[in-house]
Design brief:
- ATP binds at residues 99-109.
- Helix 1 (70-81) packs parallel to helix 2.
- The chain has 293 residues and is α+β, with helices and mostly antiparallel strands.
- A hairpin with a 3-residue loop joins strand 5 and strand 6.
- Strands 1, 2, 3, 4, 5 and 6 form a six-stranded mixed β-sheet that branches. The protein has a four-stranded antiparallel β-sheet with strand order 8-9-7-10, sandwiched between helices.
- The chain is built from nine helices and ten strands.
- It has two domains: 5-162, 2-Layer Sandwich (Ribosomal Protein S5, domain 2), CATH 3.30.230.10; 170-287, 2-Layer Sandwich (Alpha-Beta Plaits), CATH 3.30.70.890.
- The structure holds 4-diphosphocytidyl-2-C-methyl-D-erythritol 2-phosphate and adenosine-5'-diphosphate.
């Protein structure tokens, strides 16, 4: 093995999210168009006698390197499944660039990055598809994060259909600095039986096709989240008014809001505008990862 291995953990964005059913187990069936932005946490590791984790970066202070950290949970789950294929210990270092409990799946992306890293270190090949059930056991978003490419997610997030085509687009992400617990938003959700997503254009290659489709969709978690954190609604309105914005919406259970743009310059201008209005908010801009990833 190289002395140090690295894995990027890209931010997840729910471009559309319809909640279609509340299940007996308390979870909800969803239909979601999920994409990933080239804005990432970074996971690094080197071989060691036992596992350890240090956390740094802009949001490192929001997390503890305790056994319930999703990176360590992913390593434990992998080792329990394939004891003979996992290294004896890993000295892990996580650079936390993404806000925590923000609806962009940072923790899920970190867990998925840890699983991909361990699969890559295994002396016997392990396909990403072999990691899916381990991933689902760590969180509803982890299977999607394993793939980190545009996809449709169904069930609680474990039934995945990767898209073969996706237009080149840019996002501006804005987080008002309020952590939102996913379970809290599902608990506040009143309408559980919403209509499913409309069929996607096939092939989906042009931004205009996607824009028309998105106009027919929603994020069903947005109303309860705005009730809890009114800043979300304000940022959505501000983002929607920026030049070239194809869609302004909340991702996941919030509180991060995204603006979708066809041109990088438009996404940067929107970011600058939001930063002027809210100098204390986290604002990021990036291209979306394509279907070829
Ligand atoms: C809502 C979504 C949309 O992508 O994203 P986030 O806002 O968390 O980023 C995901 O479904 C979240 O995935 P993830 O964050 O991995 O969720 P989990 O840890 O498995 O679940 C946290 C809690 O959310 C609720 N939950 C989650 C997923 C789901 N389909 N139905 C639910 O009711 C459950 O109460 C669960 O206890
Ligand atoms: N490595 C990690 N990064 C972020 N959150 C983590 C991590 N490990 C555990 N968590 C916990 O997981 C929860 C969800 O975090 P996150 O994935 O950032 O939010 P969301 O699912 O809303 O996008 C938080 O309460 C956080 O404390």
């Amino acid at each position: 093995m190289a002395d140090i291995v690295t894995q990027a953990a890209p931010a997840k964005i729910n471009l559309a999210l319809h909640v279609t059913r509340r299940r007996e187990d308390g979870y909800h069936d969803l239909e979601s168009l999920i994409v990933f932005a080239d804005l990432c946490d970074e996971l690094e590791a080197s071989l060691a006698g036992s596992d350890s984790l240090i956390i740094s970066g802009p949001f490192g202070g929001k997390l503890n390197a305790e056994p319930n950290n999703l990176v360590l949970r992913a390593v434990s789950a992998f080792r329990a499944r394939w004891p003979e294929l996992a290294p004896r210990g890993l000295a892990l270092s996580l650079t936390k660039n993404l806000p925590v409990a923000a609806g962009i799946g940072g923790g899920s992306a970190d867990a998925a990055a840890a699983l991909r890293m361990l699969a890559g270190l295994s002396p016997v090949p392990i396909a990403v598809s072999d990691l899916s059930d381990l991933a689902a056991g760590l969180g509803a978003d982890v299977p999607a994060c394993l793939l980190s490419r545009p996809l449709l997610a169904r069930g609680v997030g474990e039934i995945l259909s990767p898209l073969q085509h996706f237009p080149g687009l840019f996002v501006t992400l804005v987080n008002p600095g309020v952590a939102v617990a996913t379970a809290d938003i599902f608990r506040r959700l009143r309408a559980h039986d919403n209509y499913p997503l409309p069929a996607l254009p096939d092939p989906l290659t042009r931004p205009a096709q996607l824009g028309l489709w998105l106009a027919e969709t929603r994020n069903d978690l947005e109303p309860p989240a705005i009730k809890l954190v009114p800043e979300i609604g304000i940022v959505i309105e501000e983002m929607a008014q920026t030049a070239g914005c194809i869609l302004a919406r909340m991702s996941g259970s919030g509180a991060t809001v995204f603006g979708l743009f066809g041109a990088e310059g438009q996404a940067h201008d929107a970011a600058a505008q939001i930063r002027r209005l809210h100098p204390d908010y986290w604002v990021g801009t990036a291209p979306l990862l394509g279907a070829g990833n």
